[in-house]
Amino acid sequence: MSQETGPAPIPLSEAPFNQPLELVMFSCSRLAKQLNKMGLDLHSEIIRLDETLAVQTMRIQTENGPRILSGGMGLKTVVHLDDGRRVPLHDMEAGETGHVEGATGGRDFAKSLSSLDLHENDQITLVRKLPPMEYLVTLNHTKNICLSEGDAARIIGLSNGTKSQFSLAPSRNEFVVAALLGGVKSISRLQKMGIEEGTSLTLNTVRARQTITINGEHQLMINSRDGLHLHLSYSAGKDVFVTVK
Fold first, then answer.
1. Residues with Cβ < 8 Å from 67, sequence gap 6 or more?
2. What is the mean pLDDT of each run of 10 residues along the chain (245 residues)?
3. What residues contact residue 203 under an 8 Å CB cut-off, 6+ apart?
4. Contact of 33 with 203, CB cutoff 8 Å
5. What distance in Å separates the CA atoms of residue 128 and residue 95, rounded to the nearest whole number?
6. Sign of the alpha-carbon dihedral angle for 34, 37, 39, 42
7. Dihedrals phi, psi of 87, to nearest 5 degrees
8. What is the pLDDT of residue 80?
9. CA distance 194 to 191
10. pLDDT reported for residue 1
């Protein structure tokens, strides 16, 4: 007599929308540890949401001063709000406060947060979400280029002896690049534009650009039964296995 088996596990990236799912396996131990810290364990019940998201850059106030985080960074940074909810930074409303609970990004992302003096348990306040903008910049006093606000936030350097993100630097002042934040792809993109340690940048102006939206097929948005709301990258969803309940 054959033994009955349950439904076969499937990657979260292939799971149906708006149906109860059970976490049954992680193929990446680092991701498993990150999610466990935020309360997602094996046998947790989650739902994959079918939503369209307008990704915005955010200005936050931290214990070490103001910071600008790209929309992608805001999606990966989880905040435990003062009212008890745990949500991605990107989902906070202006004026809401809480402490950094964790992150769903990899080592490069954790390094980027650390470079911004932003760590677990740090208190933060969302000041406001910024309209989509692009930065018109002069590179090494000769070449004009255009940066997204997300890339501007990934550049750390010095202007008039003050260290800051390029997105917080004053216009018309020389800004000398000291470090680039982000993963391999983000850093490589900036380097291909000619931006690296020692590069001189001068902000000329900032102008509006088109809004970026991400639909549910390319960004994994989930809710847990106990109210945790998370955004995971599509690639991370391939390392999380679920069964349909």
1. 59, 60, 61, 116, 118, 165, 168
2. 69 91 93 88 89 82 94 91 92 95 87 92 94 89 90 94 93 96 88 95 86 59 83 88 93
3. 135, 136, 137, 166, 169, 170, 171, 172, 173, 175
4. no
5. 8
6. positive
7. -140, 160
8. 94
9. 5
10. 43
